[in-house]
Amino acid sequence: MTQPDKRHRVPGFTPRWVARGDVGLAVGTILLPLVFAACTFEPRGGPDTTPAEEENEALGGAPSAELSEAAALQTIEHFRNSVAAGDLSRALALVDGDATLVDALVGEASEAATRGELLLELRRRHADGVTLEPVASRATLFSGGTAFLVTRLGVFEPGPDGAARMVGQMHETVLLIGSSEGWRIRNLHRSFLPGDLLLDSLRI
């Protein structure tokens, strides 16, 4: 009786079958390439898409570095979306180092530490179900690389049935300054409007 060929054994590995003599070795040699040829591998994602780019797309697209009116609107939209999503580092990256933020929802902040605290509190409000939806906006460009953006926001909270209902409106004004990386927020101010104050009163 032919003894199993121990030269092809791997220490600690017990094969399901033991090749006997040259016949078993030849069969194994033929089958292994066929097994690997039959394997297919699924791609894990496009090589040109990074996690950061995917996050930017989810937040409405990364703001353009151009100092245009469209880019100014995109910058503040990205800021709002980042705060609502809880991505405060991405939101703070759009804020100038000397910025002042005033939001009637949470308070006022003019220092780096307090700006972070303001955004944390604003994130908590969003986590509680508060959402801000732009109703109308206008951007006016000035010389010297500055832009002024005025927006009317609807303030929504979940109702008794869980559906979002508008509970008020806010007047948002934003002063942006140009940089080599695009627009940055120098001043943001949000205040509540009376319930009967309509679009015409904002002169947008």
How would you characterize this protein structure?
This protein has helices at 21-38, 51-58, 69-85, 88-92, 112-127, 199-202, and strands at 95-103, 107-109, 131-142, 146-158, 164-179, 182-193. The chain has 204 residues and is of the alpha+beta class. Mean pLDDT is 75; it is low at 6-47, 49-53 and 196-204. The protein is 33% helix and 32% strand. A 6-stranded mixed β-sheet has the order 2-1-6-5-4-3. The chain is built from 6 helices and 6 strands; from the N terminus they run ααααββαββββα.
How much of the sequence is in beta strands? 25-35%
Summed up, the helix count is 6
Main beta-sheet strand count, sense and barrel state: 6 strands, mixed
Kindly report how far apart the N and C termini lie: 97 Å
> What's the total number of strands?
6
**Mean pLDDT score:** 75
Shape: globular
Class from helix and strand fractions: alpha+beta
Strand order in space, largest sheet: 2-1-6-5-4-3
Low-confidence stretches: 6-47, 49-53, 196-204
| Helical residues, percent | 25-40%
What's this, in brief?
By secondary structure, the protein is of the alpha+beta class. The protein contains 6 helices and 6 strands, in the order ααααββαββββα.
List the helices and strands and how they pair.
Blueprint: H1 21-38, H2 51-58, H3 69-85, H4 88-92, E1 95-103, E2 107-109, H5 112-127, E3 131-142, E4 146-158, E5 164-179, E6 182-193, H6 199-202
